[in-house]
Design a protein that fits this description.
By secondary structure, the chain is of the alpha/beta class. The chain has one domain: Spore Coat Polysaccharide Biosynthesis Protein SpsA, Chain A (Alpha-Beta Complex). Helices cover 44% and strands 16% of the residues. β3, α2 and β4 form a beta-alpha-beta unit. The longest helix has 17 residues. 36% of the residues are buried.
Length: 262
């Protein structure tokens, strides 16, 4: 049963048996959402099984702007979740999803036109439990290149990436999805769960590097282009020595009410 705090508003589309459900957590995203939804509609049009085989859900995290109206305008299903935890928002969308496969992407991203074709083709090849597309830079500078290099090194070490993250819905449901007790790092824990499931079936996580999503750099515009590297050090210090400070930082960085201008 869907939680009473969740309100689902159905769009004009009536998808009977979607292959994919793409879930977009969104908090006050009326400015960025159109770009993502336009890229999704392009990818839906390119999908070999037809656009009706892709269900799109915008999980509206108690937005005070026109996020829900924009989503409905583009034909998405809107699910409202009041709890200001991104894990809860993703889970809210997943609870009403009807696709065989779930995919998750941030509201300020842009996806590749061949995203769904690439994911489905890779699953048909077998041997994978889940994966991600990775991301590419929308612009370049010394700070951003060094930050990206650090992120890529972490991807190589862990085998876990970001961008459009995807899995089977049955696997998602088997462990309850994202950990709602976490303010951050829930995406890493999520992939670790999937990796353990895959290990039992001799399946692995994969990266689809030919269909990378376009990553948003608004956090770098807001906090400075070098801030990410300093943030990593702060997260490590907070984890080891000052968890209260870490929680306050996480609340400000990931859940602050202000959004930088376009």
């Amino acid at each position: 049963m869907v939680d009473k705090k969740i309100i689902a508003v159905h769009s004009e589309f009536n998808l009977k048996n979607p292959i994919f459900t793409l879930i977009i957590p969104a908090y006050n995203e009326e400015a960025y959402l159109p770009g993502l939804l336009e890229s999704i509609n392009t990818a839906r049009a390119e999908f070999s099984a037809g656009p009706e085989a892709i269900e799109v859900i915008v999980a509206d995290n108690a937005s005070s702007d026109k996020t829900a109206a924009v989503a409905l305008q583009y034909g998405a299903l809107v699910v409202r979740e009041e709890k200001r935890i991104i894990a809860a928002v993703r889970n809210a969308g997943a609870r009403v999803a009807r696709g065989e496969f779930l995919a998750f992407v941030d509201a300020d991203s842009i996806i590749h036109p061949q995203t769904f074709n690439a994911i489905l083709t890779r699953y048909k090849q077998g041997g994978i439990v889940a994966g991600a597309t990775g991301v590419q830079l929308p612009r370049k500078s010394l700070a951003l290149i060094l930050t990206y290099a650090f992120m890529v090194s972490m991807v190589w070490l862990t085998g876990m990436d970001t961008g459009v993250v995807f899995c089977r819905k049955t696997d998602f449901d088997s462990f309850g999805g994202y950990n709602e007790s976490r303010l951050f790092g829930e995406d890493v824990e999520f992939l670790l769960h999937l990796r353990r499931i895959g290990k039992k079936r001799r399946e692995k996580l994969c990266r689809l590097r030919k269909v990378k999503a376009m990553y948003s750099y608004r956090k770098f515009d807001e906090h400075g282009e070098w801030h990410y590297l300093f943030m990593i050090m702060r997260l490590i210090f907070g984890t080891l020595f000052n968890k209260k400070s870490l929680k306050l930082f996480a609340q400000h960085y990931w859940y602050g009410n202000q959004r930088p201008p376009l």
